């Protein structure tokens, strides 16, 4: 069910009333796959009735099949709220179930001579795309996201944010991007594109051209359980191959993996590690980085093809691949060599320790 209210509505009051009648059953009749999908922090594809309010009125455009709410528009469904300067709900005719009789066409559309809305369209339509324009803010009790433009695909359960100052926050990480932010509800996956930076709630920082963060669909793991190897999630149709979960759970789950692609930079307390691609395992607190790897500590530099970075200890280990040699530049009187323990070393630029003199 979709309920729409126009606060202080102008002459579009009748259009708003028509919109209410048109969409009374549309969202409730959304595709079954979206309803059965896993509950996620920012997931507008299921969760009960939708309530849309606005200060500037609600307009129903039959030719373009849109319902538009303007000025301080808000859409609420379950624990998810979407706000923006303008909200646009795109609708379409529902596809008839296999073997079902086609829905009879309405006698007329719009309003009759008496100014009353015809009922022929009620229950025959479904919203497939919700857009938010201007000062977009999407939030739940635990997660938030901001952008200039937002689009939520009901069929795929995918949110895409574009514009300036793109940001998403969850209980386990904060991610920012320059080009776009995506949230794939069914895959439990957030994608940040363009100068992407992810910072975990433990202070780990990863930057890259593209970052992909995967979360545990069933919430935080039991810390006593050993970490398991994860793989990149495949794009599967909504509702297929998914285990049941609590649709009322607002938590997005524990961060279980981060993939970094292009111009990767990982910073520890003592080193800067750069490469072409990386995988971070939060359970082990270790990153594996590959492709033109460069480890820098002060003026000391090591280069190679692959490295393991222990984010907890701040120690990186350069790995040799086949016949490829590991190279390094060690500057005298500098801090410890990359990959060596951080304790007991002189400060960068400080004097080297004097050798004891014999008597």
Low-confidence stretches: 8-40, 105-122, 219-252, 342-359
Structural class: mainly beta
The chain-level mean pLDDT equals 73
Overall 3D geometry?
Answer: elongated
Which keywords apply here?
lipopolysaccharide transport protein A fold, 6-stranded antiparallel β-barrel, 2 helices, 19 strands, 4% helix, disordered C terminus
What does this structure look like?
With 359 residues, the protein is mainly beta. The protein has a domain at 2-96 and 122-267: lipopolysaccharide transport protein A fold (Sandwich), CATH 2.60.450.10. The protein has helices at residues 13-22, 32-36; strands at 2-6, 50-54, 58-61, 66-77, 80-93, 125-139, 144-153, 158-162, 166-169, 173-177, 180-184, 189-200, 205-215, 255-267, 272-281, 286-297, 300-310, 315-319, 327-329. Residues 59-166, 179-314 form the Organic solvent tolerance-like N-terminal domain. Residues 97-110, 226-244, 338-359 have a biased composition (Low complexity).
Sum this structure up briefly.
Helix content is about 5%, strand content about 45%. By secondary structure, it is mainly beta. A hairpin with a 4-residue loop joins strand 3 and strand 4.
Topology of this protein?
Blueprint: E1 2-6, H1 13-22, H2 32-36, E2 50-54, E3 58-61, E4 66-77, E5 80-93, E6 125-139, E7 144-153, E8 158-162, E9 166-169, E10 173-177, E11 180-184, E12 189-200, E13 205-215, E14 255-267, E15 272-281, E16 286-297, E17 300-310, E18 315-319, E19 327-329
Parallel strand pairs: 1-2
Antiparallel strand pairs: 2-4, 3-4, 4-5, 5-6, 6-7, 7-8, 7-9, 8-11, 9-10, 10-12, 11-12, 12-13, 13-14, 14-15, 15-16, 16-17, 17-18, 17-19
